[in-house]
């Protein structure tokens, strides 16, 4: 190299990219061609494995992607894929409006999706199965089926039996997932009941109660019915026990099961095909939340877990009230007393609880269901 020549300078990367730009266009066009013809069923396979929060964002990309979520094939694939902890669905009522609030236990976060609800009527969630939520208006006359993931709402036909008293409502699936259809059952204290079959889009009454079951039923409406397979379980009082109905077989059974002593607020739950009881024990000034499992052989409640002592000490001497929501082994407990609100989740599979701040409670405290 001659002494009067300066060494060549290294060109900036952006200049080199400009020179390569024209050569990258064919690759970009080829990539566009590949994605344009990408099979829709593979899209659905990928979407079905996304977290629920990501699926809500996925809907907003374009109309075509939004329509993919409404296909029967996607519903089938989504039901076959194992997912994480289930979400908890609530409705808050502010200024006579229905507002959906859903809690994601994986992210420990509340979501407020724009799910369409009956605009002129206050509705409460009364049952759920397979990702579907059954809503009932305050007049106890009109039923709605909401699919939060699909952001859809359907009003089912009016009941043929004009019963205006309070009813207990449960849901079961016709098959393995919601694409096979579902059935909604309502039951009154006087023994009147009906079942709605989504496959036939009609209500029907399978028959009357067997003579062995005492009427009136004295249903505990604070405990929502729970489903194990095609069987619904209702909590009863006077005498304390459980009433079950196999929707597929049409078989009623009644079990007189004494409640644990010193039990105040309580509700049914399910976990892996087992019937559970969640209750608030209050003895003298001590208060504690306990979990029991129904023993199939003895038909007695067996305690399986209780709230840690350090939490129970916080409730000592306070008059507590408890309400409970449950979904596939995940429980959300609302514990309330004067000047104290607590929201607690409990995972039945891990037998672990987590206490939340009061700010989280205020979101769900207005839930009428």
From TrEMBL:
<dbReference type="InterPro" id="IPR050796">
    <property type="entry name" value="SCF_F-box_component"/>
</dbReference>
<dbReference type="InterPro" id="IPR011043">
    <property type="entry name" value="Gal_Oxase/kelch_b-propeller"/>
</dbReference>
<keyword id="KW-0677">Repeat</keyword>
<dbReference type="Pfam" id="PF00646">
    <property type="entry name" value="F-box"/>
</dbReference>
<dbReference type="InterPro" id="IPR015915">
    <property type="entry name" value="Kelch-typ_b-propeller"/>
</dbReference>
<dbReference type="InterPro" id="IPR036047">
    <property type="entry name" value="F-box-like_dom_sf"/>
</dbReference>
<feature type="domain" description="F-box">
    <location>
        <begin position="32"/>
        <end position="81"/>
    </location>
</feature>
<protein>
    <recommendedName>
        <fullName>F-box domain-containing protein</fullName>
    </recommendedName>
</protein>
<dbReference type="InterPro" id="IPR001810">
    <property type="entry name" value="F-box_dom"/>
</dbReference>
<dbReference type="InterPro" id="IPR056592">
    <property type="entry name" value="Beta-prop_At3g26010-like"/>
</dbReference>
<feature type="region of interest" description="Disordered">
    <location>
        <begin position="1"/>
        <end position="30"/>
    </location>
</feature>
<dbReference type="Pfam" id="PF24750">
    <property type="entry name" value="b-prop_At3g26010-like"/>
</dbReference>
């Amino acid at each position: 190299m001659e002494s009067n020549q300066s060494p060549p300078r290294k060109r900036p990367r952006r200049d080199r990219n400009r020179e390569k730009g024209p050569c990258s266009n064919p690759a970009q066009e080829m990539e566009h061609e590949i994605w344009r013809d990408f099979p829709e069923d593979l899209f659905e396979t990928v979407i079905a494995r996304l977290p629920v929060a990501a699926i809500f964002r996925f809907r907003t990309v374009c109309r075509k992607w939004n329509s993919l979520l409404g296909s029967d094939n996607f519903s089938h694939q989504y039901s076959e894929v194992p997912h994480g902890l289930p979400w908890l669905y609530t409705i808050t009522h502010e200024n006579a409006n229905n507002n959906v609030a859903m809690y994601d236990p994986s992210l420990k976060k509340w979501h407020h999706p724009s799910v369409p609800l009956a605009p002129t009527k206050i509705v409460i969630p009364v049952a759920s199965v397979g990702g579907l939520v059954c809503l009932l208006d305050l007049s106890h006359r009109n039923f709605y089926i909401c699919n939060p993931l699909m952001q859809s709402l359907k009003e089912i036909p009016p009941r043929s039996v004009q019963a205006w008293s309070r009813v207990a409502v449960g849901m079961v699936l016709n098959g393995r997932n919601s694409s096979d259809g579902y059935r909604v059952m309502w039951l009154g204290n006087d023994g009147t009941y009906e079942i709605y079959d989504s496959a036939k889009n009609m209500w029907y009454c399978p028959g009357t109660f067997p003579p062995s079951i005492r009427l009136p039923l004295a249903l505990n409406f604070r405990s929502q019915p729970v489903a194990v397979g095609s069987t619904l379980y209702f909590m009863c009082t006077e005498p304390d026990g459980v009433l079950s109905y196999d929707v597929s077989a049409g078989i009623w059974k009644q079990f007189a099961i004494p409640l644990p002593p010193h039990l105040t607020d309580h509700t049914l739950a399910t976990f892996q095909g087992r019937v559970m009881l969640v209750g608030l024990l209050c003895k003298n000034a001590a208060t504690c939340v306990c979990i029991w499992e129904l023993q199939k052989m003895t038909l007695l409640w067996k305690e399986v877990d209780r709230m840690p002592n350090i939490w129970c000490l916080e409730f000592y001497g306070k008059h507590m009230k408890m309400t409970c929501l449950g979904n596939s082994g995940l429980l959300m407990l609302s514990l309330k007393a004067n000047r104290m609100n607590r929201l607690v989740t409990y995972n039945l599979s891990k037998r672990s609880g987590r206490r939340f701040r009061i700010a989280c409670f205020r979101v769900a405290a207005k839930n009428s269901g």
